[in-house]
């Protein structure tokens, strides 16, 4: 009897959303996904090719011409039976990455998706245009440039895991910044998440994010790195639907001299920064630009708060805050801020 009960409990934990089972700590009513945004495209005049799709099968002629759906966004959601938050949380990833940023961490521990579900939020995790399950489109007929890829060295140094020129192909020869919170042994596992990105798809990406907000929200957006620019623009378009915006180490934002801050003054915003920014001039320039943007929001009568983790005595955090060993502590600070904004019941 005990053995049968254990099997049933395991099944419930794995299939809670599908069959209505309940875990001791999380009640889930629905897990689902959808694509949103994008456009129809018709291609013509491209040459046919003959390909063998499966070993042993006869060759088929491939005609690349015809009608296609392109430039949509993919989202997966988990809805709770009794959410504590008034609005769902949308987790938006950064450049060269996808929604996996917020799922299970590279060291195998639960990520921010799990944390915020347990904190009482319905959670949506998306893959932006050109990323992950949002799919690709032909180049140069639709995507206008070739993709580019992030080497491990760039990720190691740009994400402030190690100092400049501290990366080595041999993991044993890499030198991380002292006291880093990133799980170094899982770095190579993390870089398996890296995917190609394009430098010419911002307009399509923005359009898809706007359609996403229009479909799902009112909501809270937690956005990382390159995704910040899209989130600020979506808030500008839908200030009544974006109830709060958390910019986690955002690397970009609209022009603060032309952005209509008065329109978004009712959208409370929070900026979150990790450690060792002063060691990297690139990051110093980014923070200065974001401080100007935040200052303009405050001057317009809005809420523009900031969490600088070292100022709170929290040391060693990298650009990938949601993957660091103390990611739950950082998520807790975000949850507390959202609660103060009246997001939690």
From TrEMBL:
Keyword Signal: yes
Domain AB hydrolase-1 residues, every copy: 220-258
Organism superkingdom: Bacteria
Gene Ontology MF, one: hydrolase activity
PROSITE patterns referenced in this protein's UniProt entry, alphabetically: PROKAR_LIPOPROTEIN
One Pfam assignment: Abhydrolase_1
Cited Gene3D superfamilies: alpha/beta hydrolase
Keywords (A to Z) from UniProt: Hydrolase, Signal
PANTHER family: HYDROLASE ALPHA/BETA FOLD FAMILY, PIMELOYL-[ACYL-CARRIER PROTEIN] METHYL ESTER ESTERASE
Name this protein carries in UniProt: Alpha/beta fold hydrolase
Organism: Variovorax robiniae
């Amino acid at each position: 009897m005990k053995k049968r009960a254990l099997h049933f409990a395991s099944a419930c934990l794995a299939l809670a959303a599908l069959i209505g089972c309940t875990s001791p700590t999380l009640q889930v009513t629905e897990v689902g996904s959808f694509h949103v945004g994008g456009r129809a495209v018709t291609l013509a005049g491209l040459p046919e090719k003959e390909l063998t799709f499966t070993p042993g099968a006869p060759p088929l002629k491939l005609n690349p011409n015809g009608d296609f759906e392109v430039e949509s966004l993919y989202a997966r959601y988990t809805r709770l039976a009794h959410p504590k938050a008034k609005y769902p949380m949308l987790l938006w990833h950064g450049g060269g990455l996808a929604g996996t940023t917020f799922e299970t961490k590279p060291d195998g521990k639960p990520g921010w998706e799990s944390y915020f579900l347990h904190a009482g939020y319905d959670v949506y995790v998306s893959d932006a245009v050109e990323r992950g399950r949002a799919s690709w489109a032909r180049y140069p007929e639709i995507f206008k440039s070739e993709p580019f890829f992030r080497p491990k060295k760039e990720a190691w140094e740009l994400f402030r895991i190690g100092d400049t020129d501290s990366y080595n192909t041999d993991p044993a020869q890499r030198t991380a910044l002292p006291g880093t919170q990133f799980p170094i042994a899982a770095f190579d596992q993390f870089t398996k998440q890296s995917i190609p990105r394009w430098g010419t798809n911002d307009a399509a990406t923005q359009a898809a994010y706007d359609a996403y907000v229009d479909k799902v929200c009112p909501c809270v957006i937690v956005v990382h790195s390159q995704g910040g620019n899209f989130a600020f623009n979506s808030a500008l378009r839908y200030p009544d639907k974006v109830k709060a915006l958390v910019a986690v180490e955002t690397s970009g934002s609209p022009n603060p001299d032309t952005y209509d801050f008065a329109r978004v003054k009712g959208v409370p915003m929070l900026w979150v920064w990790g450690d060792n920014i002063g060691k990297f001039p690139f990051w110093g320039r980014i923070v200065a630009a974001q401080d100007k943007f935040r200052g303009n929001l405050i001057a317009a009568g809005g809420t523009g708060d900031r969490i600088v983790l070292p100022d709170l005595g929290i040391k060693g955090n990298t650009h990938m805050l949601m993957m660091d060993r103390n990611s739950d502590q950082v998520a807790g600070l975000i949850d507390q801020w959202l609660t103060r904004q009246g997001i939690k019941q």
